[in-house]
Design goal:
The chain is 79% helix and 0% strand. By secondary structure, the chain is mainly α. The protein has three domains: 6-169, no CATH class; 187-354, no CATH class; 375-417.
Amino acid sequence: MNLSLPNTLLAVACFVAMGNAFADCAADYTVQDTQRFYSEAQQLERAGKVRGALAKYVVAQGYTCDANPVEADAAKHAAALALALATAAEKKGDFQDAFDLYDAGGHYAAADRALMSLVRANPDDPSLFTKAREVLEYRALPAFSNNNKIRLAVTGAYRPDPKNLAEVFAMPATGVQRALQKETAILSEQYLHDRVQLTQSVPDDPTDAGAMQKAMLAQQNFAQKYSTDPLRASRDALDLAYRWSVASNDQAFSRKASQQLTDRRGLRASTLAQKFGGAPSLLEAAIDYYSGEGVDQADNAARVPPLKAQALRLGDAAMAAKRYTLAINYYAVADADAKAQAARDEQQRVAMARMQPSIDQMKKQAEALQKQYSDPAKVQAMRDEARAMQARFRQQQLGNAKNGEKKVDELERELGL
């Protein structure tokens, strides 16, 4: 989001210049610059390049050390061009463009209207709220009117509507509560139960083709039922609530909202650990709740180790039960790399032992074939049989051709040809 504030630069220049009457002038442009900008703007306007002309008329109003001779005329042209463009943009629902254009033309009441429409259309954008607050707070300063006398003389008196600023100031609290309510509705225990069941159903024998196919089908059904990850959406909603909490200038509100988020993250993590530890991925998700935006690092350091210790215990239990895939995933959550590798090695050893009878049978068949084809007499007999079959096939083709010719001759005789 890019809210333009062309007057802010003018205000800063004015403050610098007024701060020390004896200091060098801190203007951005010379009188010759603004006159050139004004001339270029007129050329663009005559050529029908309205937006380019508007941009040039705006910079032609720039602050200069000596009186700017084209400022008033540039303001008049800018106001006329901006009004038509901004009105069209607002009708199309492009409130960002409408705000920029109204603001460039000095139509500040209309710009505020477009700004509020933009903010209301994006209720979950804290950065947009921050920009809107900055704009409206600046408009309420006496310096704003002083720095825009020429523009206001063209477009008319302007007084910011206090209701707009009050509405904007209320947005962080509303944003936090809306994000928390959304997060509550996202996560369901049914999803967590289904995820545990899916995890527990994964077979440990990769050689069991039927079980592996069944597991793949279960995974596909799960993905179709839950097209998005509710846990990820839950954490995203909490991160959004955090961004709203720090967007406000109200420190008391920010502290209260921060505590709400800490409590909610702790609740989600403890629920996953206590009720749904049967899936390693859910223990990992519990840890992820302590790595979101704004999480206190000291709190994170205290809460994460017990979850990793739980994953390690469950990994050992799965290993004892010969649930190797489950054990490997638990060890991954616990960062127990050596144990995870040991589980993989054992799983591979067991799989090879189960496959050994089939391997032995295949070896026997290969040896029998090798023995068969290593006997010269048998090889020669197979070659002779192949040649005989080839000869019979050619003889059959020749006989078919002769029969075909005979049939053609008989047909010609019958037709008197």
